[in-house]
Design a protein that fits this description.
Chain lengths: 115, 118
């Protein structure tokens, strides 16, 4: 089956620093990648959709300057949380798809804690 | 209005009981997909099933079964003879084309926390 990895699995950082999370499709080419955020005991909320080589499309209410998404290759997308604050602490999950119509395969998630 | 409603926030059962998790969805599209995912405490989403809007046939996979009823916009999930390892949060999700028609986006329900007690 399709495998998606995320790195790191856990990260703790100080307030004001930036954190980069990587999402990789290991055995298929991901034309489209999605980034979700999940607060404790809540559902997954889509943050943005990125198509390889294009700018990401952000959901309403998600600050594009704060959550920088790069999808420069067919196997890698990165999410950078800039100037992180404690309220950005959350579980970030990526998913990857061979096309915008195909099934999404989820990564294992990254737990971010901002002190 | 929520697009995916999982009315049961938490369910607690005793091992070997059958349990049904409800999911009601809302969409104007004729082509859409429905999913169920399991999220154990580790956090990783486990894919359980995908159903397209044109296939109303119910499905059984081991102890799991799904009942898709377009007439009531429901896609319910039943676990037969539940086990402690079934304890997790279960999410129902709807995939439909976005306003531009170019991307299929997943909308998740709020999830149902299932606890199976020994």
């Amino acid at each position: 089956g399709a495998v998606v990895s995320q790195h790191p699995s856990r990260v703790i950082c100080k307030s004001g620093t930036s954190v980069k999370i990587e999402c990789r499709s290991l055995d298929f080419q991901a034309t489209t990648m999605f980034w979700y955020r999940q607060f404790p005991k809540q559902s997954l909320m889509l943050m943005a959709t990125s198509n390889e080589g294009s700018k990401a499309t952000y959901e309403q209410g998600v600050e594009k300057d704060k959550f920088l998404i790069n999808h420069a290759s067919l196997t890698l997308s990165t999410l950078t949380v800039t100037s992180a604050h404690p309220e950005d602490s959350s579980f970030y999950i990526c998913s990857a798809s061979e096309s915008s119509y195909n099934e999404q395969f989820f990564g294992p998630g990254t737990r971010l804690t901002v002190l | 209005a929520q697009k995916v409603t999982q009315a049961q926030t938490e369910i607690s059962v005793v091992e070997k009981e059958d349990v049904t998790l409800d999911c009601v969805y809302e969409t104007r599209d004729t082509t859409y997909y429905l999913f169920w995912y399991k999220q154990p405490p580790s956090g990783e989403l486990v894919f359980l099933i995908r159903r397209n809007s044109f296939d109303e046939q119910n499905e059984i996979s081991g102890r799991y079964s799904w009942n898709f009823q377009k007439s009531t916009s429901s896609f319910n999930f039943t676990i037969t003879a539940s086990q402690v390892v079934d304890s997790a949060v279960y999410f129902c999700a709807l995939s439909e084309a976005d306003s531009g028609g170019s991307n299929y986006k997943l909308t998740f329900g709020k999830g149902t926390l299932l606890t199976v007690n020994p």
